[in-house]
Amino acid sequence: MKKQKLINIRKERKISQSVMAYRLGMEQSQYCRREKGETRISELEWNKIATILEVKLVDIFEPFDVDLIEILNDKSFSSIESPNKDSQYLFDKMKNYIEKLEEENKYLKSRFGDQND
Q1: Which of 109, 90, 108, 7 is nearest to 55 (CA)?
Q2: Burial (Cβ within 10 Å: 0-12, 13-18, ≥19) of residue 83
Q3: What are phi and psi of 66, to 5 degrees?
């Protein structure tokens, strides 16, 4: 999924993809794939990008960037002391992940058409 918040702020700062790529130590094409959502942006890369753009991570990070694996590996909701709170946390995270998948499906259908027709 396209990283629109990131793209908008990068453009506002008048920083090219080539400059971003150079500062991140990668090719422009690699950086472009990250902005397009074709390649996952690692946590380290997100932090570097925020530093380069001189913004807080929350200003560029899209809520859809949470991967299912990160949700399931999150130790913050594994406490036995508060199962209801933890269950709600997991439910909310999974709901957000499902919404992300639904948006990606819409995007892919609009781009490539519905293959089930």
Answers
A1: 7
A2: exposed
A3: -85, 120
Give the residue carrying structure tokens 């700062």.
13
Kindly report the backbone phi and psi dihedral angles of residue 39, in degrees, each rounded to the nearest multiple of 5, phi listed first. Answer: -125, 135
* Cα separation, 5 vs 106, whole angstroms: 19
Query: What are the tens digits of pLDDT across the range 20-69?
Result: 999 999 999 999 999 998 888 888 898 999 999 999 888 888 755 555 54
CA distances from 65 to 13, 17, 84 (A): 22, 20, 25
The per-residue b/e assignment along 53-81, b for 16 or more CB within 10 angstroms, e otherwise, is bebeeeebbeebbeeeeebeeeeebeeee
* Gap between the Cα atoms of 72 and 85, Å rounded: 16
Tokens 């809520």 map to which residue? 63
pTM of the model: 0.56
With a CB cutoff of 8 Å and minimum separation 6, the contacts of 38 are: none
